Each structure stands twice: as C-alpha cells, then as structure tokens.
Amino acid sequence: xxxxxxxxxxxxxxxxxxxxxxxxxxxxxxxxxxxxxxxxxxxxxxxxxxxxxxxxxxxxxxxxxxxxxxxxxxxxxxxxxxxxxxxxxxxxxxxxxxxxxxxxxxxxxxxxxxxxxxxxxxxxxxxxxxxxxxxxxxxxxxxxxxxxxxxxxxxxxxxxxxxxxxxxxxxxxxxxxxxxxxxxxxxxxxxxxxxxxxxxxxxxxxxxxxxxxxxxxxxxxxxxxxxxxxxxxxxxxxxxxxxxxxxxxxxxxxxxxxxxxxxxxxxxx
Length: 269
What we know:
By secondary structure, the protein is α/β, with parallel strands linked by helices. It is 46% helix and 18% strand. It has helices spanning 2-22, 25-32, 36-50, 65-85, 102-115, 127-135, 178-189, 202-210, 252-265, and strands spanning 91-96, 119-124, 141-144, 154-158, 164-171, 216-219, 229-239, 242-246. The protein has a 5-stranded mixed sheet with strand order 2-1-3-8-4, sandwiched between helices. A 3-stranded antiparallel sheet has the order 6-5-7, with helices on both faces. The relative contact order is 0.13.
C-alpha cells in the first residue's frame, strides 16, 4: 500500500513538472495517458489543500511566486525519490533528433548490446522537447545540436565523430530545371552563409526533392546513401551533436553508457 501511494505521488509530481515546462494540457495528458478532467482536478486539489495560487492565469499557465517555489520543491523531491527508489536499471531511454543518422543509432545499439548489459530505447523528439525531458529525467539521455544554459544540471558531451556539414541537394534528373531556379534563389537569399534551412522531417524533405518540388539543404551524410540526389553546393556550415544528461541523476549505469559513448564518438576519450 505504501509503495502504491509513493508511486502515485511520484507520478503526480512528474505530471505537474512536465505540464509547467510544456504549458500544454493535451500534450501532458497524452504523454502520461491521463484524462484532462482528472489532471485539472488534481491541480485544483493542490491549490486548495496547500492554499496556493500556482498560476497567474489558466490560459498561459505562467507560475506565480508560490508556483515557482512549489515547482522547485517538487523538482528536488522528484530527484530525491528517483535516486532513492529507482536508482538501478539497465534500460536507458534516449531522445534523438532526426538529424542523427539512423545508421549511427543502429550501430550504437548493436555495439552496446554486444559489449554491455545495457538496453537502449531511442525515440524521436523535437530539440526543445528533448532538453525538457532530460531535465525532468523522463529521458536518461538526449542527443541535441546545441547547448542550452537555461536548464540547470544538464551536462553536455560533444560527439566529435557525429558532426556533419550541410549540402544543397536537388533531384539528379531534374528535367524541368526547377532545382536550378530554386538554387539561384536560395544562393541569393543565403549569401552570408550564416543562415541554414534545417528540418526535423528529413524524410519529407527528401520526398519533396525527389518529386522536383524543391532543392534543400540536408546533412552531408545523406548523399552517401542516396544515389538519386544531385549535390548543387557543398557548404562549410557545420552542425555539432551533443549527448546531454541530468547530472543530478547519475549512477553506474549512466556512467557505463557515457564511457561507451566517449570511446566511440569523442576525440579525447
């Protein structure tokens, strides 16, 4: 009975913290498979029982000063409870960007499974979602393309051997000259080379290119696996990838995975 009560309290804290960061009732309820009614009722009960006003308003869900204090308290409590009761495990959840080559993911999973007792689960997320989920320890690790100082306790490891450049691609047999026209437009638009088009849906971009709908920038590793693409321009624009994790939830399992990652993808391992 005590374990069930503890589990319920941990689950509610997780849901509350998730909601505060994402500010989206539907996304929160879908993620945790709870009803909208029960979730909103739980928030009302918290405010009533603790005599708190958590939110400035119920439209944007920005926290009051009491709400910020309650968030910090809940976050610290969650970290403590997780470290105490859910510390040991051999299954790691990892959030990744579509910019990460699926070939690298498969090779990593195969290597880790062969050489350690760890099992990995990769899930595709938007970049900001990954950072929030790692911060909340909903994910053990995340792969992102930039360092965000907004989330305290997140550590970053640069994956040197997974960095890549961006090339401009079109369909190889561009009979109608669409790509050449778009290439001229894009070249004029991005003369300073500091702006780059990036998409979280590479499959959609590839499909558009192959149906002569556009020319687009894509990671350079794309050309290594797709013979239908014509490289219009090679750039010097580089994207680095980083492994991020919450330094407050770290154990032997995490350290083992970090050691494997550094040995495979870091220059100074």
